[in-house]
Amino acid sequence: MTSGAIHRELNATYQTVLRHLQELESSGAVTTDAGEKRQGQRVIYVANRDAVRSALAGYEEYLLG
């Protein structure tokens, strides 16, 4: 999904969506198809399901013991 599509779907500002996507990418929770070349390109973001599952398992362990 592109950042523009996410911004429209969530009704959030584009800059807010970009900032969160950058954080999610930095943490490994999402990946992109763009590599390092992003200028002028449409970037597709994809959830890294294994990273999300791992994070959820960590949260569950923390919350439930």
Automatic annotation (TrEMBL):
<dbReference type="InterPro" id="IPR036390">
    <property type="entry name" value="WH_DNA-bd_sf"/>
</dbReference>
<dbReference type="InterPro" id="IPR036388">
    <property type="entry name" value="WH-like_DNA-bd_sf"/>
</dbReference>
<protein>
    <submittedName>
        <fullName>Putative ArsR family transcriptional regulator</fullName>
    </submittedName>
</protein>
